[in-house]
Write a structure and sequence with these properties.
This protein is of the alpha+beta class. Helices cover 43% and strands 31% of the residues. It has 2 domains: 38 residues; 68 residues, SH3 type barrels, CATH 2.30.30.100.
Length: 115
């Protein structure tokens, strides 16, 4: 059996500790790469689609209907469901009763899901 000098053992222990701390960082890095791969470009809507969404949003606001929004945020499509609490026509901002807010230009689609 070969006897290791104390400073060599200490270096080996330190290398193992560093490796244990690097593995979670590497895992996070791989996850971020995977997330980057699934990002999409923002879909382009026609004028007719935009007008139809404006009508649905306005009618839902007036009638207090529950509505589902699909929103483009930083490369991903996210769903939000709620009742519109405030609708600002000047800056085209929508605020749901849940206090989630977004701008009209972020909306990809809408549909009424409750009356």
């Amino acid at each position: 059996m070969v006897a290791l000098k104390p400073y060599i053992c200490l270096i080996m222990i330190m290398e193992v500790k560093v490796a244990v701390h690097v593995i979670p960082e590497f895992k996070k890095y791989l996850e971020s790469l995977e997330n980057e791969k699934i990002k999409i470009n923002k879909p382009i809507l026609s004028e007719d689609q935009v007008k139809e969404m404006e009508i649905i949003i306005y009618e839902s606001f007036i009638n207090k209907n529950k509505i589902e929004f699909i929103i483009y945020e930083a490369g991903y499509l996210n769903n939000y469901i709620g009742v519109i609490d405030k609708l600002y026509s000047t800056n085209k901002k929508i605020i749901l009763k849940s206090k989630k807010s977004f701008y009209f230009c972020e909306i990809i689609s809408v549909r009424i899901i409750g009356y």
